[in-house]
Structure formats: structure tokens, C-alpha cells
Protein 1
Amino acid sequence: MPLHEVGLAGDHAASAPAAAPGLSERAAHVLLTYTPLGTLVRAVARLRLSVHFKLLAAFLLVALLVAAMGAMSLETISTMSKQSEAMHHAHQRVTSARQAQHALAMQMNYTAMALILRDEATIGSILRENNRLNSALAQVDDSAPPEERDVIQRIRTAQGEVMATVADVANFVRDGKIEEAMQLQLRTGYPLFQQVEGLVEQVVRIEEEGMARQREATIRANRRAFYFMGGFVLASFLLALLLGFVISWSFILPVRRAERVLGRIAKGDFSTTVTVDNRDEFGALAARMNNMSAELRRLYEEEREAARQLEALNSQLARASQAKSEFLANMSHELRTPMNAILGFTEMILDDIYGEVSPEVRGPIQDVRTCGQQLLRLINDVLDLSKIEAGRMELSLTDYSVQEVVETARTSLRSLAEEKGLKFTANVQPDIPLAFGDGKRITQCLTNLVGNALKFTKQGGVEIGARLEGDMVVYSVTDTGIGIPGDQLDHIFGEFRQVDSSISREFGGTGLGLSITKTFVELHGGRIWVESEPGRGSTFRFAIPLRIAQATEVV
Amino acid sequence: MSQKKILLVEDNEFNRKIVHDLLARHPYDLMEAHDGETGVEAARREKPNLIIMDVQLPKMSGLDATRQIRAEPEIAKIPIIVVTSFALSGDDKKAMDAGASAYLAKPYSPRQLLEAIKKWLGDA
């Protein structure tokens, strides 16, 4: 039953502290699994009381046990002291009884001596011994049981008779009637002595028996106290152990389970919940943990679902992008193939391959060629833009010559400048070393700028410049055209931008050239900027690293 | 001395006509193929002095046809001018990797093509 599994020995690796179960751990496991202790632990856990209260109650109980033990010790000590006192008392009574016996013996002795010595001192000694006997009897008589008191009374009576006889004997002795004295002593005195002696002997026996009883009672009482105390101490010890075990395990078990479940959660398994018997703070903690686990699971599943959707979307996008790329390649081919024929035939006609062309026809054919070239540039621009937008624009990196870039741009546009009657010059720093980058694209950038400059210039000229500034090659195109108003300077590199829509009507063009140029410059890690004064002309400049790092190859 | 043979592999009728008209007044023997497969077959059969190969061709692409020709020892040495569409950067590199002797980007100028032909065949 996993709900009540104890989770000690051989626990999961998640619970690091319990990795190597010790002897006490195994013992606890056995106790919890095979004895009613497990049930007790669960019962304590199920108590609807706070941990604070449970701990307090347990400690209080242990403290009460200690206090009870102390009280019992005091009680036992007091009992033993009473027993000892009683013993002492009994001993004294025995001593007194013996003193009485002794005094009697001495009395008999002195009486016999008086018959021989016949002096007053010995007679006085008889009286003294009589007094000792009486005082010893008085001590025994004090708090004596009734039957003993009876005996003592009889002793006193007999002793009275003895003393009367002794007085008579003494008088005979003083009168010198020794014979009468001896007769009286033998007939009356001696039997009376024997009677008293027997009675005193009886008292001594009674007192000695009393002392023996008292001794036995004391031994029994001591033994009883010993067993009772021992039992109580043992019971207290076991009860304290039990309390400690039950209380601590009623807290340890939920913590262990929680720790195990947290371990699983930490490993990303959100399907487990922690079940504890506790209805205290640990129970509340487990409930919170289960809430947390459920919430994590929900979030995790949401996230997984989102990731799945995103992945699906991604592959859809990738397919779309692939389709777009293929479409671009196809369109490029499909558009260029007829353009190739149009421009090819036009060139061959103008080269007189089909016979000499009359001056009247040559003009319109040249127009066809100009328009065809324009259309080709447009197609190229649109394709370039599509590639840039699709993120598939790549640079083709090789060594190239800056001089050649400028010369190619100049050659391709020289005829346009000549047609418009513009001055068209180039000023290239002669010692620029071999550059590294996409020479074709840089040529395209320069051609774009020069084409624009020629387009917007009606008189004056256009100059191309190139020089080395540190690691950068700075290309410049300066014209004497219409210029650009200051508030437009920031926008002209955006897509489809021209300074004024009326300009497109006058000068034509789509406004794609500058945007594409900017993209290529930036792909090279360079920058482009413009200075202009309306009515006086503009200078476009772009700076590109002489040798670009390979890392910027793919964008 | 017999005329030098040029094999033009091109599927577009008008572009074939351009080359045809361009070479009409020059002493070259022009043969045509309309797709990559027949282009390779014609090369095996005729062993031309120069091949002008379009890239986008039916059945077998110009690049595959070029690789095929370079793989066959008897015709491997024939100069091949590959005409690319310049659709994506790197087409020129692909052409050279496939074994092209030179490449031209479409749209090409007929004058450029003629210069290239003369360069590879020598003035005939």
C-alpha cells in the first residue's frame, strides 16, 4: 500500500540523506511496518492539532513523568525513614525489657548478698535495683499493647509483694535474726522472684518478637518500594521513548514523502502527488505542494503544447520559406530568359548583325534597349528585396579590387552620362590594396548611387570617389543635382522612399535602390550616409571594411 | 582545316536563335540540344570543340550534364561555358565546382558571349 509505505531502507536515490540506511533506520522501518507503532504514528499524524501543540504536549508529558518520579522518591524516602524509626523504637523497648530483667537478677543477687554480708549498703542496692526495674518497666509500659500491659501490671503487683518480703527480710537481718530472714527468703521471697522473673521473661519475649516483626515489615516495605520505583522508572523510560518515537516519526514520514516527491518534481515528473496522513502543518504543506505540482504540470503541458504548435508553425514557415525561395529562383530564371532574348536581339540589331539599321529605326531600338535594361534592373531589385525579406540574402566573399568596382560602375553608366551631357569623373586613391568581400554587391551599391545621381542631375556633373580611411574604404558619389531637403534625409534609405511622390513621376524609379544598397552595406558591416543641400546637390558616402570578417558572410 | 564545332545546350527557342544568329557570320559549326540528356549524348557523339550550357534545363540540369561530361574521359576535356541565371549568390561557384570552364550570367550580352567563344576556340 504505497500510501502508507514508510520509505526508509532502500529508498530512492532522490533522498540523499537516507542513501545508506543505518541500523536505527532499519529498526524504525521494522517497527513501523510490523508493529502497531505504525498505526499509532499515523493516528498521531491524523490528530487535527498543530505541530506546536503536539510537541508541547509530548514534552509536557515527559516533564510530568519526571515530576511524578521525584514525588515518588520523596514518598519512599519518608516511608523508609518511618520504618527505621519504628525499628529503633522496637530496639529500645527490647533494651528496656532486658534492663528490667537485669535489674531483677541484680535485685535477687543483692538480696542473697544481704543475707551473707548483713550490711545496709547491700540492702540499699536492693532498693536501687528495684527502682531500676520499675523505671525500665515504665519505659516498656509506654505505648505497649494491652496484653503486654496486663503482664506488666502483674509484674508490678508481684514486685510489690517481692519488695514487701524484701523489707521483712531486711528487718530480720537488721535484728540479727538471720535464720528467720533466710527462712522467709526461701519460702516466700524466692518463689515470688521466680514468678516475677517468669513474667519479665515473658515481656522480653514479647518485645523481641515485636522487633522481629518490625524487621520483617521494614524489609518487606523496602523491597516493595524498590520494585515500585523500578517499575515506575522503567515505565516512564519506555513511555518517553514511545512518545519520542511516535512524535518524531509522525513528522519525519511526511517530510520524507515530500522530499521524495520534490525530487521527482525537480526531475520534471509532475505526475506525482504527495499523500500524507497528517492533518497539521505538514498536511497543509503537502496540500500546497500538490497544488504547486498540479500548477507546474499544467504550465508544463501548456508549454509543451505551445512548443508543439510553435514547432508545427516553424516547419510550416520553413516549408513556406523554402517554397518562396524556390519560387524566387524559378521567377528569376523565367524573367531573365525572355530578358536575355530581348536585350540580346536588341544588341545584335544595333550591332548590325542583321544588316545595317537605318537611322530612323536605330533611335526606337535604342529606346527598347534602354527600357529593357531598366526593366532588368527593376527585376533585379525586386528579386534582391525578396531575398533580403526572406532572410536568404547571402554574400559571396572573394578578393576584389576597389579600382575595378569603381571602373565597372563608371563603364556601365558612362553612356547615360554622355546622353545627358554631364561631366562624369572618378577619383580613386591609387594605392588601395586588394579588398575582401562581395565585390559584385558593392559594385551594385555604387552603380545604384551613381545611377540615382545621374538621374537627378540635369546639369553639372557626377564624381565617384574612393579612398582608404583606416580599415575602411569610403566610397562617395557627389552630384550637382536637385538635392534633398533636410527633413527627408533620415527617411530616404527606407523601402519605396523617394523624396517626393512627384519626383517619381518626373524621374521614374521605384525607390528600392537605396534600401537595397543600405542592406548590402550593412551586411558588409559598413554604414551609409548622405549630405545634401537642396538646389546645390548631394553627396552619398558609404564606408565598408577593406577586408570583412568571415562571420558576417551569412545574414 | 575543318570548322570548329560548338554544341549549344539550351531549351529556350529564342535564346538558341540569338546564338545561332550571332554565329551565322562566323566559321563555326553550331549544333543544338534542347535538354541536358540529349546534350550529353550529342557531346559523346559529336565531340565538339566547345559547349555552351544553360543551367535550367529539362530532364537533366546543366550542372549535372557538366558533371557527367567531366566524368567521361573521352569528352572530359571539352571547354564548357555555363550560362547561369544568377538567381542566388553562389551560382557562379556552383558552376565552377561542377566543372565549368567559364560562366556567363543571364542576361548576357551577345558581344560578351562571342568574346568568350573566341577566347576558348581561338580566332577561327
Note: The two ends of chain A are 61 Å apart (CA to CA).
Protein 2
Amino acid sequence: MYIGRVQVAGPEKLTETHVIANYEIAPGILMLSFPREFDFIPGQSVWLTVDAAVPPRLYSIASGSGDPRVEILYDLVPGGLLTPRLAGLRQGQTLLVSSAFGPFRDEEGPSCWVAAGTGIAPFASMVRSGQSREKTLIHGSRTIAGLLHRRLFADVLGEQYTACCTREMAAGVFHGRPTEWLTLQRLPLASRYLLCGGSRMVVDCRDIIIAKGVPFENVIGEIYF
Amino acid sequence: MKENLFGMTIAQLGKVAEAEGIPAYGARQISDWLYSKNTGAFTAMSNLPRTVRESLATRYTIGREPPVKATASADGTRKYLFGAEKGGFVEAAWIPDARRSTLCLSVQVGCKMGCLFCMTGKQGFQGQLSAGEILNQYQSLPERNAVTNIVYMGMGEPLDNLANVLDSLEIFCADYGFGLSPTRITVSTVGLVPAMRTFLERTRCHLAVSLHTPFEEERRRLMPVENVYPLKEVLAELRRSAVHGQRRVSFEYILFDRLNDTPRHARELSRILNGIRCRVNLIAFHPIPGTPLAPSPREAMVQFEAHLREHGIMTTIRHSRGQDISAACGMLSTRELVRMKEEGDR
């Protein structure tokens, strides 16, 4: 794999699989799926690439642990090394995937999940795997269309689901960022807080949650490096 | 936009020379002006034909910038703020003591790693520094001639900017560059395993790993990178790489009051470092605004050090430097960003 223009060793083992589906689910955001040939715990990730010459990147799994296919969400980065190639894959074409790994997972009991953009993937996986009791989700996006799986979350989590959108307004959607929503709330101090997304969002949300009195031990961030 | 020559390796300068139609040794002549003679103008490159100097000036800049701000601590530490090409600021600190004078430099504007105890992470990630911008913190430092050691421990994660960091290390150490010994340079990392492997293969510089707790669950809360590259994989890689010769591996351990400074932590740290030739640097925490963490009392630091030493681990307590000038990395540049934003808001 490469970091910048330097070739470095990648994950130890990538296995060939094939594309089941690959399509745009919101402007600039695609969903890719392939057969599930391994078990995983909701919240885990895989390394994925198109061939050995292109550096693999890490993607959180968005599908349920019992689903026959594994789904991942990705932003198309124009000029990027991997995602334009990923976006060009058609059904049946080959891709390389690692097994699932990573400790970002939830347990039973009250949790508050905060995600933005494709950072919603691990929480989609958790909900699709049956984890919804005592779970609250704060979901951010610039656009309404970018609130991926919004209907699923609204159906399963009901009032425990808050969608936040910065650029568009819609009924039932908070107009602003998750950070702004969090700032306005009284937060349960004993809950776990799981945050997933870009570094700025995770760091800002973590600071707000801790400033409201939640012990930092209760806050776990998964940053998309 | 003109490209910077400063920060180019000899191979990259060779391509410049080729494009200018001058012999291959022209690359060495240019590097001599850039790195040995510290030249700030193309007109001074007197052993290059005039037409080449003029041509270079139309396509390239030398690419050296002085610091935009300097602050001095009562303890002699000086901190410099440099503007970054793509916007924002980075910090370099010059830390003299009785035996050495160390330059601590930055590699990124902001940082993606989001460590709980770090001020730089609160800026978010704003961009990579080029090799030239990294080297400029040395070349444009007023105390440059006094520098004996360089540490890549300022803003940003060095191994997340691997290509530019490797280029800068090559230039620091090469005969055509600054000719420094690699054993005078230490690169710090949170433990990006694949990049760390490449760094160990391609350089002879020292490595410092930010460890901060031996327990995985605790480390996840302090350092989100633990989710991707767990400490056990970092240590396994160091064992595999069989670090030897003059290269030194050290572990950075910031001590937080009653969080990671207990005998239980010292015992576990001794256990997991068993078999790795290393040293541990214990660091007093410089509190940052809004942090839930507190520095360990001196007594706890001394006890922690004693425990590790009893278990055969070379351990030192680092002295805090420059606390009166916001020496914790990221503090000065964050203040400057806030100041600029406030001025813009007026």
C-alpha cells in the first residue's frame, strides 16, 4: 500500500472477492457490497482495494452481521487513488478485502451514538444487527440526501434518532451540526458515547460531551484517518 | 504557481537539472547552494550559467520563509510560529540545555489523530507540510547553528506524512544536504504500523512511540488510533524489526494523575516492553484548555520511574520546558488562529 507516494507494507492478508452491487446512494456517496465470507462484530472494519497496485483503505462495515452480503459506504474523492477506481467497479468484478477487525463496538445498555457522513456505517451495522434498545443516534450531514439510512434509523430508533443537517432544512431535522445539537442538550452522564467520522467532528463532539460532565472514559471515538 | 526547490532531494534536483539542460552535476551544485551555503537568491548561484539562473527563477522559488512570530521562555526555550503554504500555522521549539540544543519541529498543520491530551488535534487536520516546509523550520531558525538534535515531535503525526518526512530526513542526513547524523534525529509516532515498518527500513533515525498506557481499553480512550493499530501490533512490529545498532527506540509516556501512573500500570508496562531494547521517557502533562486530565504529582512520577528501573527499563523523567510560553504543541498556533479569526470577525 502507499501512504502519499511512498509504498509501505499493507495489511497482512487480502482475499479476492467479487462485487455484488456498487451504486451512488447520495450525491458523491456510494454503497458497495460483496459476499460475506467472514463473521464480524457490528462496528468492525475491513481493508479494501481494487488490486494489489492500489493502496487499500479502511472502511467500516454498514451491513448487519447476519446479512449475506457485506456493505460499505464511501465518498468518491475526485483525483483520489482508490475511490475513483472503486466507483468504476461493476457487478462481478474483483476486489480485494481483508477480514473484519477492530474493537469499535457497543455493548448492551444505554449508549449515545454520534456520526456524520459515511461515519454512520458502524451504527447502521449495529441497528441492522438488532442493537437498538437504549440507543440514541445523533446523525449529521450537510444535505438531507446525505443522511444515509435515515428511514431505517427513524423506523427503528423513533424519537431516539436525531437527524442534523447544515445546508438544507426539512421537517423533523435539526438545522445545524451534531456539535450544536449536543451543546443544547442535557446529556446522560452514565451513558457510553460512541463517535464516528472525521477527526474534527469527533474531537469537537468529544470536547462538548466531556465539558458537560461525562467521564472521558465513557467516550470512544473512531476517526476516519 | 512556482515550485519550491528547497526541500528537493538530489534525485528531484537531478530532474530539475535535466529539464534545464545542464549536466547531472548541476543537481549537486544547486543542492550545495540550497543546503550548505544557505542561499536565498538564484542570482547568488554563481557557478550556474546566467541563463540557467534566470530560467530557474522563472519556474521555481527558493522556498525559505522566516518565522512570523517568536516567544521566549524564562528557561531559555524559544518557540517559533511559521506560516504554512496552504494556510494556517505550525510551531517549532528550540530547547537548549546544558549538554545539547534540540529543535522540535512540526510536520502537519493540525492533526488527524485526535489524541485526548493534545491541543493540536483540536485544530483538526488542515494539511501536510512539504519536505521544504519541514526543513525550513531548521534552516530559518535563528539558533540553527547551535542545534545538536532534531525531534519530529511538534504538530502532526510524522508517519501520516511519510513521503515528505522521508525526503526531509534524507536531506537532513545526506552529504549533499545538511550532513547530520541520523542518531541525532528522532521521529515520533502514535504507531501507524505499515508506515513505521517503512520508516525503520529506509532510515537509521531513532523512533519514539507515543504509548501513554499499557492497557488497550484505556489507550482507545486516550488515542483513537488504538482502534486501527493496537499497541500490541506496534510492539510486535518493533520485535519483528529487530531494532539494533545505534538506532534507539523510546516510548513516550505522559503521566496523568491516577489514570496511568499507578503501580499496576508500571507493572504492565514493564511486562509488555520485555524483550524490546528501549527506553521510556516519562513526561509531565502540560494541561490544555478543557482537558479532563491532570498532571501526575512529582512523587508519583518518581515512583513510576523507580519501578521501571527496577525492572531493567532505562527510564528518564523529562523536564518540563517552556510552560510560560504555551510550549505544549499546538497551543501557540491555536491561539494565533483564534486571534486571526477574532480580527476577521471584527
Note: The CA atoms of residues 8 and 132 of chain B lie 7 Å apart.
